[in-house]
Amino acid sequence: MRITKTQIGEKITFTLSGRADTISSPEFQEKLIPAFDEAKEITIDFTELAYISSAGLRVLLIGEKTAKTKGSSMIISGVSQEVMKVFEMTGLLGVLTIV
Q: In the chain, how many domains are there?
C-alpha cells in the first residue's frame, strides 16, 4: 500500500492506494495515530484503495477511538463498492464516518 500524507493547517488527509492488509497496515497505523496530535480533522481517502483486510479495519477502529479520545474527527472518503461491502458485512457503517 502507498500512503500519502497532506496537511493544511489542522487538517490532514491520508490517501491510500493498493491494499490495506496484514503487511501494510502496521505502517499505516504508525502514521495515522500520531497525526491526531497534529490535526483536529483527519480524512482518509480510499479512492485508490482496492482491498482492506481485518488488519486494515483494526487500524481504522484504533484511529476512531483515538479521534474520540483527542476530541478530533476521522472521516473516510472515496470508498469503492467492494470495500463498502466489507464495512457493511462487519457492521462498521454505524461506527465509522464514511462520506
A: 1
